[in-house]
Please model this.
Amino acid sequence: MRTVIHGGDVIAFHRGGHRLLRGGSVAYEGERVVFVGRGDAGPADHRIDATGKLVMPGLVNLHCHATTEASGRLFADAGRRDFFHTGFLNYQTAPPGIAPMNARENLDVGNRFALVELLRNGCTTIVELGAVSDATVAFAGAIGIRAYLTPGYRSAAYRLGPAGELGYEWDDAAGVRGLERARAFIGEHHGAHGGRIRGMLYPLQVDTCRPELFRATRKVADELGVGVSTHVGQNLVEFHEMLRRHGKTPVELLADTGLLGPGTILGHCLMTTAHRLAALPGGRDLEILARSGVTVAHCPLVFARRGNALESFHRYRAAGVNVGLGTDTYPRDLISEMRWASLVCKVIERDFTVATAAEVFDAATLAGARALGRDDIGRLAPGARADIAIVDMQSLRIGPYRDPIKALVNCGTGDDVETVIVDGRTVVDGRRVLGVDEVALRREAQAEAERLWATVPEWHWERLGTEQVSPQSYPPLDTDLR
Ligand SMILES: [Zn+2]
Model:
């Protein structure tokens, strides 16, 4: 089957970069793009009129967690001060013997909700961290998303002591077993569903894994020919913990273990020697990152919510680091995330000329593809995978525009995505993910989140209630007003 998308503004790929093609056509046959241009696109079994729309490569989301994010949502505007700019430690910690909030999530609901949200918002390729099972593979395969699934493992869990102090509960054997489970998972599923499902190794956090586990991960990744993802430089607690434990910054420690390299994606990586709060003289973290060829998965929104930022998207890129984008927690809207990446960087640098629309769009497409070692996604050119998002540019919010990329980055959201195609298969049509009852799924996610929010007193270290740890924005109105 041969399809021609015609009449739209096309982001085409030519000679190493994106180009704007006004009123052009994209033709694809089977899973591959066969033509991009203004001339004769050839015959078509099916035609899509994209007049007034933007035809762009599907977005590459390098860092997301497929849950309802009920836990992250709970701690908006709230949480412990001594976790500094971190949200996740509030719900990934509990006293010994008690499951923290995130461990109580029904992953069946969370997985389906998140994967549908990602696809709906134009992410055709995702790196999903941790929340994966055989059912995730089956569901991702059914809805047609391209997914790098990464079963997580670690040598220690975060634990709270009697006074609520943060510590680590070590179980080295569990880390080794987790790595072997990940190897088996990849052996079973890598290449499934027409090659759209692939695996990666995912030692969870730099401070919860022994250096030996990172070394073993490097070895297995090389044997399997797969990439690696981890969390690093997430907060000051971790930065200081690594200095105390190893006498090295988190980045220096990972470099020592051999984990860094072109196939490795570092989630967040804010707290490096480039960050003013690190206040560590003589730091070389950016140089180490650039030299290793590693990718930083930059998720600006989740950190902006905690009052922190990468310093900065511009400086990392200028140092030669490959910086891609991810959505981490919620919402899973990489179009809005591009705007956050651009604006947060401009504020940090006090410079409106940095983190341009083109640079953040490159991060969401080409840098993501590079991180995954691929030259067939994140671009529209003959031979590339037919992974395409068609965006309606006629909303009042987007308004009049001269430059569709500046308009998209400054005014667009995932809601503007009308059609999504992966491997030549239409998976979102008329703003709906095909084969999914989104209303029922949204209802399921709400019920699951409410169940989780009610569990706060069961795991909170001070046995506080839900309203105490996260007061509603406004007090309830409990009287009739006449
Ligand atoms: Zn993460």
